[in-house]
Design brief:
The complex is a heterodimer of chains A (321) and B (326). With 321 residues, chain A is mostly helical. Helices cover 76% and strands 0% of the residues of chain A. Chain B is mainly alpha-helical and 326 residues long. The chains are: A mainly alpha (321), B mainly alpha (326).
């Protein structure tokens, strides 16, 4: 396990470097591009006075060179944990603004997250056990169709079916996890991911089916269902869970941007897009850093768990790295 | 096919290498052509790309030809899928949208999934040392970024700068119409997609080069005085080519989907040019959902079929190039 500790340490040491590079790049790109929050909001509010623009820009230090602005931001962020001011919501700190949005998105994704596994894993195991019959390609093919329908297409089609035609659900919005407003986001966020889970579970099950302990279990007279459930499934499920948790984080963030924007849900996905279009510099930066941090940690956890379960896996991507 | 009568029907068993030697790629290609599903997928993709490439000759109307008298008309003999709010022909709009997908996927595939990963992977693997570290750390930073938010950020904030730049280029080379034709948009989108696409392919190729670098035939080539670039081109590249094909083909569906999302968010292709992003946006409006479902279903079905074909083909390619992996 020494190798694992060294690997984890190396990756954790790299994290501040990644965050530094990412924060600088994001800082520079957002501020170098034209359009700044002051002029966008002033125009929305109907102000046209160029001197007032200059005054406000000066107040927030936006007239300084970008690299100097970054130095100031970095000092505040690193020393005081102060991520700067949101130009859209000036009365709140950035964590105060982002926190509730994350809470909405987390609740919105909760059913989808569990459904992906609860349906994907059994489908994969069944497909593997029925390998060679027509059921295997049929199941995998069906879920591959779901995977191929972009969220952007799935959500409006679901609205058309469930809201316009059947009047089962509201056209959008979010009323908590026990309301029918959860149905469309849950389907849209879970269906694309099930195929990946099912295929991985199928591959893992196929591998486990030929292990010695499975032959032993059969030899001692257990019926096939018990063999599959108690011996094969257990060995197939764990790696699938950990690998896909990392992947589904990516899917959920991307899916959330589209689903929340389409359905008018006040979560972190829709908020990310709004922040970019309104050039709320410091909020964009905080969001990018948050996503990056979550990605790196999730991938690291996946790597560690995979090694702990299967010591044959070597970390670090081959020799020489 | 006459050569291998003896192997007909035994798809799984590996034909022994012939004395003259057949390249790995050609052998895999032949195995691929024996898979019915793969051939069907390639046919779907070929039809889509043909229609997209020759959109101006195939589409019955222009992508922006409006006829306000025909606003929201249903399917008819003149307009197979009906018309949209501005009386534009839905079929023609979909055909021109295919052109956008064709240009963006091919350009992204060529740069972000073949040129960049191959060059950087070969360089990192064969040279090692500082260059290797630089390429790898750069890749590590890019790979730890959330792709979609970053794509939105780049395309949204840099577009005006980029349009200015392309304007200067136009004036410099006296070749006007780059910005107005939408070419600048394509360039920005595939540039951004390529930036986030190369890391996976680079790692694959680098790992492969590391194992091949010390193989006997590379050693022999070096001993006989072959230059580094010759070894890379003639000896290493043909061996990593299958890996590139598999990893790139698995990404094509995602590339096509990304362009649609970016355009739908308003940061990709700009109107009046056609893209499935706009078509889906128009189809998802309240009035279309209630009374004109074909506005959503036609582009939705086309883009889903294309991504489905890419996904299936990616699977089949994976099977033929890496037998025994499943």
């Amino acid at each position: 396990m020494e190798g694992v500790a060294g690997y984890v340490l190396r990756r954790l040491l790299l994290l501040p470097v990644i965050l530094f590079v990412v924060s600088f790049a994001t800082f520079y790109i957002t501020r170098w591009g034209p359009g700044d929050p002051i002029s966008i909001y002033s125009q929305q509010a109907g102000y046209r006075d160029p001197e007032a623009f200059a005054r406000v820009r000066h107040k927030y230090g936006l007239d300084k060179p970008i690299v100097e602005q970054y130095g100031i931001w970095l000092k505040d962020a690193a020393l005081h944990g102060d991520l700067g001011v949101s130009f859209r919501y000036r009365d709140h700190t950035i964590p105060e603004i982002i926190g509730p949005k994350i809470w909405v998105s987390a609740r919105l994704g909760v059913y989808a997250f569990f459904l992906t596994f609860l349906i994907g894993i059994p489908i994969g195991i069944i497909a593997a056990v029925k390998q060679g019959s027509a059921l295997d390609p049929l199941l995998i093919g069906t879920f591959l169709v779901f995977q191929s329908i972009p969220v952007l297409v799935a959500v409006p089609v679901l609205v058309m079916l469930l809201n316009v035609k059947l009047h089962l659900v509201p056209p959008g919005g979010f009323d908590g996890i026990f309301s029918s407003s959860m149905i469309i986001p849950t389907l849209a966020l879970s269906l694309p991911g099930m195929a990946g889970v099912a295929r991985l579970a199928r591959a893992m099950t196929l591998g486990a089916l030929h292990e010695d302990f499975v032959r032993t279990a059969r030899a001692k007279g257990l019926d096939e269902t018990t063999v599959i459930l108690r011996h094969v499934a257990r060995n197939a499920v764990a790696p699938v869970m950990t690998t896909v948790i990392g992947l589904s984080l990516v899917g959920l963030i991307e899916g959330a941007i589209i689903t929340e924007t389409l359905l008018g849900i006040p979560g972190i996905g829709a908020f990310t897009f709004e922040s970019v279009t309104s050039r709320d510099y410091n909020v964009i930066l905080a969001l990018v850093l948050l996503f990056t941090f979550a990605f790196v940690i999730a991938n690291l956890v996946v790597d560690i768990v995979l090694v702990m379960m299967d010591p044959r896996i070597r970390l670090g991507g081959g020799p020489g790295s | 096919m006459t050569v291998e009568v003896g192997y007909a029907g035994t798809i799984e068993s590996e034909p022994p290498r012939e004395a003259r030697g057949e390249s790995l790629t050609r052998r895999a290609l032949r195995r691929l052509l024996r898979k019915k599903i793969a051939v069907a997928c390639m046919a779907v993709i070929a039809v889509f790309y043909f229609i997209g490439a020759f959109a101006p000759w195939i589409a019955p109307y222009g992508y922006n030809a409006q006829n306000l008298d025909l606003s929201f008309h249903g399917p008819s003999a003149h307009h197979l899928f009906g018309t949209d709010r501005l009386g534009r022909d839905i079929l023609s709009r979909n055909i021109y949208a295919a052109r956008t997908t064709v240009v963006v996927t091919l350009a992204t595939l060529a740069t972000g999934f073949i040129l960049l990963p191959v060059t950087l992977g070969l360089l990192a693997g064969y040279r090692g040392g500082f260059i290797d570290a630089l390429i790898n750390r750069g890749g590590e930073v890019l790979a730890s970024l959330p792709a979609l938010p970053m794509l939105i950020l780049i395309t949204a904030t840099l577009r005006p700068r980029f349009d200015d730049f392309m304007g200067h280029v136009e004036n410099g080379i006296h070749w006007h119409g780059l910005v107005s034709s939408g070419f600048a948009d394509y360039f920005l989108i595939f540039g951004a997609l390529s930036l986030f696409g190369w890391v996976g392919g680079m790692r694959l190729i680098r790992a492969q080069v590391l194992t091949l670098r010390d193989s006997e035939y590379v050693l022999a080539a070096r001993a006989s005085g072959a230059s580094t670039s010759r070894i890379l081109r003639r000896h290493l590249l043909p061996n990593v080519m299958p890996l590139i094909i598999v990893s790139a083909s698995a990404s094509l569906g995602a590339i096509a989907g990304s362009e649609v999302i970016l355009t739908w968010l308003g940061v990709g292709v700009q109107p009046p040019h056609a893209s499935y992003g706009f078509l889906i946006d128009e189809g998802a409006s309240r009035i279309a959902l209630q009374h004109h479902p074909q506005l959503l279903l036609v582009p939705g079905a086309i883009i889903a079929s294309l991504i489905f074909a890419f996904n299936l083909l990616g699977d089949a390619l994976n099977d033929v190039f890496t037998p025994g992996a499943r």
